[in-house]
Design a protein that fits this description.
The chain has twelve helices and twelve strands. By secondary structure, the protein is of the alpha/beta class. The chain has a single domain, classed as Rossmann fold, CATH 3.40.50. The strands form three sheets. The protein has an eight-stranded mixed sheet with strand order 1-2-4-3-5-6-11-12, with helices on both faces. Helix 3 links the parallel strand 5 and strand 6. Helix 1 crosses helix 11 and helix 2 packs across helix 3.
């Protein structure tokens, strides 16, 4: 079910996939939106209830004047407050992964388990692909043809408009967001206190094996690594194995009870 809420005069959208399970908040990456997590939500149901945010400038959420790190993290905090739930599990892919671990670092009492999909503690994003994207095409088929091998990864963001077929994100906004994502985020990564799963695609062009191992080593005993045969978008390339890894990491849906127990120790 699609819902909306307001933040600083802007409308943000999210998809609540429903069900009786414990909430798992999900944050997508660039070029995507909340609907990208539909297969994961189905795989995790009924144990987990996935609630996925269309992050600023994506999906059905409004465009924003800025796409800085603090802006995204503030949106996640507003999303969590709007839902009115206590400590939760949080999953993020790429852009969403950095947003997730930065929120977990800055609000340690709000996140009891964290899954980060294929993004590092140091990000050096190349936005040339974004500038090469076709802006519009007369038909969905022609847009997919122009995208080539990237089409399956962007199909959830394809929209029809007065100009033909395009995307639910803006290329210039995406470049601004990618530039703001770049940098050294080690301080946030090492500040995360909750159990963390880092999932890497073995064919990823974003997160190297050596950097992933360093991320785990710097949080020894708190974080562990799962590598799956996939590219950067692991949940798309290996959906069943990705869901299994998430399920195995989150054996107890009562995240709030687990967080309370950890705080008492």
């Amino acid at each position: 079910m699609r819902e909306f809420f307001m933040v600083d005069g802007r409308r943000l959208s999210y998809l609540d996939f429903g069900g009786p399970g414990a909430p798992l908040l999900a944050l997508h990456g660039h070029y995507n939106e909340a609907s990208a997590f539909a297969p994961l939500a189905e795989a995790l149901s009924p144990r987990w209830r996935v609630i996925a945010l269309d992050q600023r400038g994506h999906g059905e959420s409004d465009r924003a004047p800025r796409y800085e790190r603090d802006d995204y993290v503030s949106d996640v905090a507003a999303f969590h407050r709007h839902l009115g739930i206590g400590p939760v599990a949080l999953l993020g892919h790429s852009l969403g992964g950095v947003n997730a671990y930065q929120y977990a670092a800055r609000q340690p009492d709000q996140i009891c388990a964290l899954i980060v999909e294929d993004i590092g503690a140091v990000v050096d994003c190349d936005w040339r692909f974004t500038l090469r994207l076709p802006r519009h095409a007369p038909s969905r088929q022609e847009l997919a043809a122009a995208l080539g091998p990237a089409a399956p990864y962007l199909e959830c963001a394809v929209r029809r408009s007065a100009d033909g077929w395009g995307f639910s994100f803006d290329a210039e906004d995406t470049v601004a967001s990618q530039k703001a994502l770049n940098g050294d985020h080690w301080q946030d990564w090492t500040a995360v206190a909750c159990p963390t799963l880092l999932i890497r695609g073995t064919d990823s062009d974003e997160l190297t094996a050596s950097h992933a191992r360093e991320m785990i080593n710097r949080r020894a005993g708190q974080a562990h690594l799962v590598e799956l045969p996939a590219g950067h978008v692991v949940h798309h390339d290996a959906p069943a194995r990705f869901a299994d890894a998430v399920q195995s990491f989150l054996p107890d849906p009562d995240c709030s009870r687990r967080a309370a127990g950890q705080a008492a120790r």
